[in-house]
Amino acid sequence: MEEKKIMLSGIQPSGDLHLGNYLGAIKNWADRAQEFDCYYFMADLHTITVRQNPADLRRRSMQQLAAYIACGLDPEKNTLFLQSMVPQHAQLSWVLSCYTQFGELSRMTQFKDKSAKHKDNINAGLFTYPVLMAADILLYQPHYVPVGADQKQHVELTRDIAQRFNSIYGDVFRVPEPYIPKAGARIYGLTTPGDKMSKSIPEGCVFLMDDPAVIARKFKRAVTDSDRENCVRYDPENKPGVANLMNIYASVTGKTFEEIEKEFEGQGYGVFKPAVGEAVIETLRPIREETDRLIKDKAYLESVYKEGAARASYIASKTLRKVYKKVGFVQI
Ligand code: ATP
Ligand code: LTN
After folding, report:
1. pTM as predicted
2. What is the CATH code for 202-292?
3. Domain ranges, ordered by start, for the chain
4. What's the pLDDT at 53?
């Protein structure tokens, strides 16, 4: 039998998961879980580049693990783990930081954005964040890294670091490809269709754990467009709000834009917006209910992350051993 290809990704437990995370990343992971050998983790080490409340970080990490499972990632078939429980991430990160240039890190848009947002805490971790991300990835020798469009630059840097290291020491790392969905790669805020949906603008952000009534209200208040056309037509340039809603509807129903235009022909936004809300509510309902159920089962979640960390660490240690040997560290 042919070996399965490897897929790996992570999300920071720095906020509650939202529809952008789900459609841009997690849904894709779950859809592909049968086909690939998958590693998905909570990037908790990454979160402390910005100050976190410790109790909230712990709660969110467990909730995120429960949500991964509720979204369809079966822990028997996928390796689910917390980054901080696998020491090889921090160990490889140090080595890779010596093969990454200051100039490369200075060009990362996420660093520029976040350092502008947190002027009082532009710490070294925020700057070297993409090196840790490269270590997260390269340890597991994945073929694909499924992320939203905003993370593409980090995956490209990872490829550059891997190629540089390989060119000095031979084939140590597989050079991975970013895997970006067609629909859902960039979901915009419901109240700010110019900006990506983000927890920092909660009114326009649909959280996976939001009540159906809250979701319905957020969609009713969604910004459509300033023309008077009142017609459901895909035109991202002139009608970004409507295009965003169509994108969301397409992602959750699997319908094409033409099918959606037909479905709502002759009907205005007053019908369209609640229909999108309803489709999202029905998609998220089983996820929310299952997350709620799992979060109460602490013993089960503990068994999942322990098993996940052991499996991840086994694979990661093989790559790290190779790296240590290549750079010249004395082996035990
Ligand atoms: P913030 O809300 O602070 O911008 P975030 O929700 O983007 O943070 P991340 O940990 O950066 O959180 O994102 C996790 C994953 O979800 C990444 O793969 C990212 O590309 C994807 N993602 C995040 N927001 C969106 C979005 N609006 N549309 C599509 N994908 C998204
Ligand atoms: N930087 C990512 C989270 C992340 C990640 C990774 C994604 C950390 N390590 C490895 C893919 C692979 C983010 O902020 N979304």
Report:
1. 0.92
2. 1.10.240.10
3. 5-185+297-327, 202-292
4. 97
